[in-house]
Design brief:
By secondary structure, this protein is mainly beta. It contains three helices and 34 strands. Strand 21 and strand 22 form a beta hairpin. The two termini are about 25 Å apart.
């Protein structure tokens, strides 16, 4: 078992919310342990840190709870020399500390009534708390946790997981969840989106953790971009036709609507470009939650991501009463994402697009990070449990041959997106491993699994049993020992 290190005041009461039970049951222990059961052998050429962010509520919500409202909890596995050490900590955000002092909730969440807030909102989007519980990357020797509605961006020590505080370079409107790290340059690319002008900002942070570029990008109004992409020379932004209902802003309500009569728009900007340098392209209407990768091909910028066939799906008829619409908005099988490719010709201004694969409803794609922003071949996506925001397997798509390989996590076993770990002296792009935490409901435990990326269907090469069952989650990353300064 792990060694408890902190006491967290939790007031969460048992309830029937579908995303506070089962695989989404929160944990409140903060542990350190190197006493881990290992099934099989950890490959001795792995040396680095696996990091996953998790929505993990500590208090009952003010109003209806949405799983994106949970407090950020970071879980890590440090692997070196065939051995592993596990650690987990809450992200000590300003909101987390304020609620610890209060002994209860102070802000409503995504589905709550904004007028119930007991203190002013903490993001550019109204009354919600910045819980820093969405994504996580490693940059400039530290973990950076982020929040989807544009929060501060909190840095954590990769060894101790101590919260170091907000990143100093974050602009007033915060940063969105999905920053991008270019391993080739050491730069971090970020964006934010806001109800007030500027509706979109884009910036670049150098490998020294100092802001080196920040520009405002003009949009027709407030939008809801969740992710961005980049190539060697360009940053790519999206203006999809799913965004807030502006007529409700005066009532402080944030309710999105889909506008299928509007095209999806894509802005391509030189990495260090000015607003007047952006070039806009139009494409079929959709909403894209996450991108895979992008690269340059002559006059074209090529972008791969997950095209949603039904961005606003009908409610789930077999979901717990009162949660039918929320359930559909989180279910991959409801909004039916497919791996899709857009080609933007910067010379002619034309867009060409195609569906690459429609064999599975897939999302949350990962790839070899050494190929980020460059021509690549393989994408590793998750598949979803029908009706739930739970991931039950991984699919490898070969973009050159069209071949597909799939592995299931097993019955009542749920994982997260699976970062790619390049093997030392790799001989090919897929020469490496995939890593994920698994929540196993049948055995009532959590594990870390490592899979050979060249042979997914063989299943894990090793399994590391964690000291407690952790909540299911989504976003994760891998950082080499060099990237964490160890």
């Amino acid at each position: 078992m792990g060694t408890p290190v902190n006491q967290v005041k939790a007031t969460l009461e048992p309830n029937d919310h579908p995303y506070r039970n089962g695989a989404w049951t929160p944990v409140f222990e903060e542990l350190d342990t190197d006493d881990l059961e290992i099934i099989g052998n950890i490959p001795d050429d792995i040396d680095g840190l696996y990091v996953r962010n998790t929505e993990n509520p500590v208090h009952d919500s003010l109003g209806r709870y949405h799983p994106f409202d949970g407090d950020g909890m970071i879980h890590t596995i440090r692997i070196k020399g065939g051995k592993a050490t596990y650690r987990n900590r809450f992200v000590r955000t300003e909101g987390f500390e304020a609620e610890q002092q209060e002994g209860g909730p102070l802000w409503p969440g995504l589905m709550g009534n904004p007028h119930d807030a007991r203190r002013p909102g903490m993001t550019a989007h109204g009354s919600v708390k910045d819980s820093s519980s969405t994504d996580v990357v490693v940059h400039a020797g530290a973990i950076l946790s982020t929040f989807y509605l544009c929060g501060e961006g909190y840095r954590l020590d990769p060894e101790t997981l101590a919260t170091l505080g907000p990143a100093e370079w974050v602009p007033d409107h915060g940063i969105s969840a999905h920053c991008k790290v270019d391993e080739a340059t050491g730069e971090l690319l970020f964006f934010n989106y806001a109800i007030e002008t500027p509706h979109l900002q884009y910036g670049v942070v150098g490998p020294d953790n100092r802001l080196k570029h920040l520009v405002a990008i003009d949009l027709p109004g407030p939008r809801l971009p969740h992710d961005m992409a980049f190539t060697e020379n360009f940053a790519i932004f999206n203006d999809c036709p799913l965004f807030w209902k502006e007529e409700l802003f005066e009532r402080k309500l944030r309710i999105p609507a889909y506008h299928p009569d509007m095209p999806a728009r894509f802005g391509i900007l030189p990495r260090m470009g000015q607003p007047e340098n952006i070039q806009w392209f139009e494409a079929k209407p959709t909403y894209v939650l996450h991108w895979a990768n992008a690269f340059e091909d002559g006059d074209e910028v090529v972008l791969d991501g997950y095209f949603q066939n039904d961005p606003v799906p009908p409610p789930l008829t077999d979901f717990p009463p009162g949660y039918e619409s929320m359930g559909a908005s989180l279910d991959l099988h409801s909004f039916r994402p497919e791996l899709h490719r857009w080609r933007f010709n910067r010379k002619t201004g034309e867009t060409n697009e195609e569906t690459l694969f429609d064999d599975y409803a897939v999302e949350f794609g990962m790839f070899n990070p050494q190929y980020a922003g460059r021509h690549y071949r393989y994408v590793y996506s998750v598949t979803g449990e029908p009706g739930w925001f739970l991931f039950n397997g991984l699919t490898k798509h070969d973009l050159e041959t069209g071949e597909t390989e799939h592995v299931s996590f097993g019955e009542q076993r749920f994982g997260s997106e699976a970062p790619f770990i390049p093997r030392s002296n790799a001989r090919s792009e897929d020469d490496g491993y995939l890593i994920s935490f698994i929540t196993d409901m049948k055995q009532d435990r959590s594990e870390c699994i490592i899979i050979d990326a060249k042979n997914l269907s063989a299943g894990p090469v090793c399994t590391i049993v964690l000291p407690h069952r952790i909540s299911s989650g989504t976003h994760a990353c891998w950082a080499s020992a060099e990237q964490i300064g160890q």
